[in-house]
Amino acid sequence: MMMMHRWRRSGDFIRSACKSLSSFRQKHNSMSPSVTGFMNRYESKVNTFEPNAWSHQYRSFGSSSSSSALKVKRNPLFSSLESKDVSFFKEILGERNVVEDEERLEIANTDWMKKYKGCSKLMLLPKNTEEVSQILKYCDSRSLAVVPQGGNTGLVGGSVPVFDEVIINVGLMNKVLSFDEVSGVLVCEAGCILENLATFLDTKGFVMPLDLGAKGSCHIGGNVSTNAGGLRLIRYGSLHGTVLGLEAVKANGNVLDMLGTLRKDNTGYDLKHLFIGSEGSLGIVTKVSILTQPKLSSVNLAFIACKDFLSCQVLNHLDGVRNPVSSSENFYILIETTGSGETYDREKLEAFLLKSLEQGLVSDGVIAQDINQASSFWRIREGITEALQKAGACYKYDLSLPVEEIYNIVNDLRGRLGNLANVMGYGHLGDGNLHLNISAAEYNDKLLGLIEPYVYEWTSKHRGSISAEHGLGVMKANEILYSKSPETVS
Amino acid sequence: MKILVAVKRVVDYAVKIRVKPDKTGVDTQNVKMSMNPFCEIALEESLRIKEAGLAKEVVAVSIGPSQCVDTLRTGLAMGADRGIHVQSDSSFLPLTIAKILKSVADVENPGLVFLGKQAIDDDCNQTGQMVAALLGWPQATFASKVVLDKDKKFATVDREVDGGLETLCVDLPAVITTDLRLNQPRYATLPNIMKAKSKPIKKMTLEDLKVEVKSDIEIVEVTEPPKRKSGVIVSSVDELIDKLKNEAHVI
User: Fold this and answer.
1) Strand duo A146-149 + A176-179: pairing
2) B188 CB near a chain A CB, below 8 Å?
3) What is the DSSP string of A276-310?
4) Nearest C-alpha of chain A: how many angstroms from B31?
5) Which of A384, A409, A443 is the last residue in one of the domains?
6) Is B133 near chain A, with CB under 8 Å?
7) Those residues with Cβ within 8 angstroms of residue B44's Cβ, 6 or more apart along the chain or in another chain
8) Which residues pair with B4 in a beta bridge?
């Protein structure tokens, strides 16, 4: 989620700076001369091979991005928080849900990766839609900038303030409103933690259509706002398909009730889709109705190794984790199948894997024999982010690419960075989503200059998307033109 | 030397147990079943002994309905050389299981019998001890470390007892039951799953083994533990003190 007012009021992102951030921004966008030189070569190559409109578009943006991003400053049109504001909020929310405590604000100001840090002086914890509406209406009248926040597990700096925005955290709006055991439609408030919803559904014999590593803390509202992809996308489709309705509060405090539970509804524009993935720029999602799936009794999981990728470095940074396969291979793939007949499903998976083994497509692998083993395999996959964080500084990119291109960027970048950093790629093979991670001892300008905008240009050249499921956030807000044409953006 | 390992098919460790509405037992319909974790540890230890060159063959045995073959296949995929499936559709209490295992041991003549210390479904913790008694062999239960001497005359076993370890030396043949910390079982790898498909599983019946099934124990009722009441959040210290005094009566 990100600041709605930023989009609404300030097209040019001008804000007066909070010290740490403005210096960070400069670091983030500085580019060394060597990179520019490379870019020129790169452009000419593109012109030779792909002389189409698309390449022109990305180039024109590529050259302007470095300068425009330096200008992120606090918009002087926004007013600053005054004590009368705080008393107003206390009046509508009650003392306890207006947070000024420094320790709690410190946590809310800092993103999960500890890469982005705001300096908000106030966090509000509304308990219902009406309170969210009142807050926004007031902030709108006072020109106070706000940032919606859920579980604060985002990876692109979208869930924390950039400057001193008022944080609206929906964590207290965590009730399941209804669940239909026939249709599987779940209606809940935005602050429900994904794992809690999954646990609730489990008792009813259903599963959430999405699952992701941050499930223990992320909120469904944030999932919807960032259009989170996650681990079950291939099986159940994206949130654009599974979210049946939303309730959202616009910046002026108006409540949009789009909380339908219908599978089919062709009355006019389907506005909820605008909110899915809008990262809070259009409003705050307060309620979600989502189609859940009957739980299938048989789950089979295989962890397989293939020749050709990198060290399983994850294992060195996670406690209590071991390599399921004895050999150290270059690529590891986790395959989960679900169905209704366990023996049959397992035979099918085994037959497929054994055939792959015979043909040499797979070099080694294990099949989970019980749920405990299955969770330990998932622990490895879901712990990659955590492991990378423990390994030091990490530049993260969340790219959508044609599946056959998915790994070439890792190799190209390895060649480019040499031994400056450890480049690794993981992600969702089935839906062409690569999580490109560049792990180094510490963040530094030279390295960043070598990575950006190279990664974005590479992605653009292959008609990929620079954000597959994490969102744009603060990190990539200015790079949207690498993936969308200027006409679309304007 | 041959090692016989008993493996039991139980409701998966990670599944939330549901008691049947008529209170006759635990619901196992459409529930994920897996090898009992303690049996897995027993099998792993046998395989390690074999890999150390101290045993020639590891034989896994499972008693129960036809799906027990799945559990045996898991065992074979982990590395057991062959399986024995004693077919029976009724469920047995430990004494009967011990009699069956004794008969299997009489046929197979192993130098060691490994069992998990208990099954996670009924938590009886009796079978290993009974097998040892029926065979007239020494027993070492709750093993957390097993060392065989070179001549395979005896085994030195560390047992986890309250507040410490007890080290036993048992003459072979013997019965050993395994505790949680003995080892970490291996995963079933694809090449081994493939190999396991061609390993033999011998079917046996109670008649073959000449075991007479009779039980003098009747399960009267199986019930869930009482539900925990949800807590309350108190708004002040005074309220907490008030509740402790007047509701909980503890201060």
Assistant:
1) unpaired
2) yes
3) TT-TTSSEEEEEEEEE-EEPPSEEEEEEEEESSS-
4) 7
5) A384
6) no
7) B78, B182, B183, B184, B185, B186
8) B59, B113
How far from A33 is each of A438, A446, A450, B37, CA to CA, in Å? 21, 10, 10, 60
Q: Which domain holds residue A319?
A: 298-384
C-alpha distance from residue A455 to each of A243, A356, A450, A481 (Å): 32, 33, 9, 14
Residues of chain B with Cβ-Cβ distance to A379 below 8 Å are none
* CATH code of the domain containing A312: 3.30.70.2190
Regarding whether A282 and A185 lie in a shared domain, the answer is yes
Cβ distance of B184 and A322 shorter than 8 Å? yes
Instruction: Tell me, yes or no, whether A280 and A318 share the same domain.
Output: no
Check if the beta carbon of residue B41 is closer than 8 Å to that of residue B116.
yes
A314 domain-assigned: yes
CATH of B2-224, one of 1.20.1050.10, 3.40.50.620, 1.20.1300.10, 1.20.1250.20: 3.40.50.620
Q: Are residues A250 and A224 in the same domain?
A: yes
- Best mutation site among B187, B194, B197, B198 for testing chain A: the one with the most A CBs within 10 Å? B187
List helix spans (H) across A114-236: 129-142, 194-204, 220-225, 233-236
Other CB atoms within 10 A of residue B238 CB: 9
Question: Does any CB of chain A come closer than 8 Å to the CB of residue B57?
Answer: no
If 0-12 CB within 10 Å is exposed, 13-18 middle and 19+ buried, where does residue A443 land?
A: middle
Do A197 and A264 have their domain in common? yes
Q: What is the ipTM of this complex?
A: 0.73
Element (H, E) at B240: helix B237-246
The pLDDT tens digits along chain B (251 residues) read 999 999 999 999 888 888 888 988 888 887 889 999 999 999 999 999 999 999 999 999 999 999 999 999 999 999 999 999 999 988 888 999 999 999 999 999 999 999 999 999 888 999 999 999 999 999 999 999 999 988 878 999 999 888 889 999 999 899 999 999 999 999 988 889 889 999 999 999 998 998 888 877 888 998 888 888 888 888 889 999 998 998 888 88
A250 and A230 within one domain: yes
